[in-house]
């Protein structure tokens, strides 16, 4: 495998992803030329990069970071334009651009489908940062891609500080349908049921409703393209969900059926791995009542740091009409014993759980 | 309204709720007699209360804190046993015990249906605390209840430090169906889809999947009774969801339909009120890359405290295979400007958003 270092890269699409890659590569000394069909985004992105981005040579790699709708057209244009150019994309769905390249008799080995998993709740060049991908997974679907391009892609991922994960195109699209697109649709459908609700009802909302609907705040235009683009992998999952929902409605009055429904959910949830992609998560939760004012959260986190434990997760719950809050902290079972004793000794009101 | 102070209270059901009420009342100097059909729970709860709980007089109030299944029987037994006794319950559904009392020709004005909203992710007397209800909403359905009992109920809520919220029985059951029971069923159904998934797929799970399925970890036996008990209010909500899901499956390939789906979700989510039951939430989010090790979270929270801002919400995201983490903090728009500048000055890598 050739070990040539990248010197000239062109990026098409000056959104959050394209501009963040541009910033990371530029910081690493790569010459970057960033363009966008929207002049405002292009100008803003160039400003963020510290001025002009003229080239003194022809680029070796083109990174296509447009919205899903425009991907295939831009990839085709680039592959046709320059027979020596290599192209990678950063879209959320991989089967469509790959299919479009192969059915257009374009040189498939010169196209690398990739997907950096970052930027979930932010968008636009104004949110871009060179460290956006630091430590985040970056999926690479490199079957059939020529070795020179594989090396380039790996260099881009490495310069961005991301964590490369190899998957086939089919594996990628199936996985994101399940772990990303299905939860998005479900959260949106659930949140949609709240439209027109009586504000008195909504006053009783708790952390459960807020958590289950958080991602319903996502960008409608981007997500409409992602969902429609991965409909093939999504449809069987939704049909399965539909069948389970119909069955639940049928047996809503039967505690035994409802118990299996909740038990099945617990079993499924246990399949979500813990941090660092390792073993399945097994946290112990500590609930702590605090005054809902600046400094309280800091003090409690400081106490945990003193106990030399690692906080795995944290949730803050506010009560309507009150200045009291509830903090729930997740720890490994071993850490939880240490930290619970430490916090109690320091005078915190700790409610251990499960 | 009589302003007599409670002196003798009996509590039936030594679970999380009953034992926590017992601890709060005992701490306030009320004589409490706690019983449970399970001798182990009763013994444990009595230990937690610091020994025996014998009475020197007849109780004025009986608080029924059994699982939903047993509520109506216990309420009826108590109302029949002593014509002077007043009874309140703490169950999650209000129409069923009220219906059961009224159709049994029991003295309805001597029964007060209430629902303390606390204890979501913990259970059993071992998790009980006298401050469990501190600052939490406690729904009271007091239409038709005699003034003496109203005063007693208000005193219990006040001694527990909870925030009394008046609703009719119908309003209560409709509200919790929407803001609590529907999200529970949806989270359980979604999480159930993960059963048997390829572990390689699950490795790509992010915060979105974790948040949407968190409450799927709830207690199956308790929730089966809650769902079945509130099926009347839940059914139309689930049928509506089913219809929206079917429509989504039909139009999965159409970006315009998918865009409305996500837009409807955003509109519904905007109906969830912010903290303290006030205006709709309007947070600004800051994403911060940290080393995933003890002390980092503490340092960042400490920085926020120094800037004198209030953290409204916080999420921790771990990346598979990496020791880097991403912390997302939510602030009021005004606070976010102050804290972002402060954090940047202190050298944190802050990604402002929306």
TrEMBL record, chains A, B:
<dbReference type="GO" id="GO:0004665">
    <property type="term" value="F:prephenate dehydrogenase (NADP+) activity"/>
</dbReference>
<comment type="pathway">
    <text>Amino-acid biosynthesis.</text>
</comment>
<keyword id="KW-0560">Oxidoreductase</keyword>
<protein>
    <submittedName>
        <fullName>Unannotated protein</fullName>
    </submittedName>
</protein>
<keyword id="KW-0057">Aromatic amino acid biosynthesis</keyword>
<dbReference type="Pfam" id="PF20463">
    <property type="entry name" value="PDH_C"/>
</dbReference>
<dbReference type="InterPro" id="IPR008927">
    <property type="entry name" value="6-PGluconate_DH-like_C_sf"/>
</dbReference>
<dbReference type="Pfam" id="PF02153">
    <property type="entry name" value="PDH_N"/>
</dbReference>
<dbReference type="GO" id="GO:0070403">
    <property type="term" value="F:NAD+ binding"/>
</dbReference>
<dbReference type="GO" id="GO:0006571">
    <property type="term" value="P:tyrosine biosynthetic process"/>
</dbReference>
<dbReference type="GO" id="GO:0008977">
    <property type="term" value="F:prephenate dehydrogenase (NAD+) activity"/>
</dbReference>
<dbReference type="InterPro" id="IPR003099">
    <property type="entry name" value="Prephen_DH"/>
</dbReference>
<dbReference type="InterPro" id="IPR050812">
    <property type="entry name" value="Preph/Arog_dehydrog"/>
</dbReference>
<dbReference type="InterPro" id="IPR046825">
    <property type="entry name" value="PDH_C"/>
</dbReference>
<dbReference type="InterPro" id="IPR036291">
    <property type="entry name" value="NAD(P)-bd_dom_sf"/>
</dbReference>
<dbReference type="InterPro" id="IPR046826">
    <property type="entry name" value="PDH_N"/>
</dbReference>
<feature type="domain" description="Prephenate/arogenate dehydrogenase">
    <location>
        <begin position="7"/>
        <end position="283"/>
    </location>
</feature>
<keyword id="KW-0028">Amino-acid biosynthesis</keyword>
<dbReference type="InterPro" id="IPR045865">
    <property type="entry name" value="ACT-like_dom_sf"/>
</dbReference>
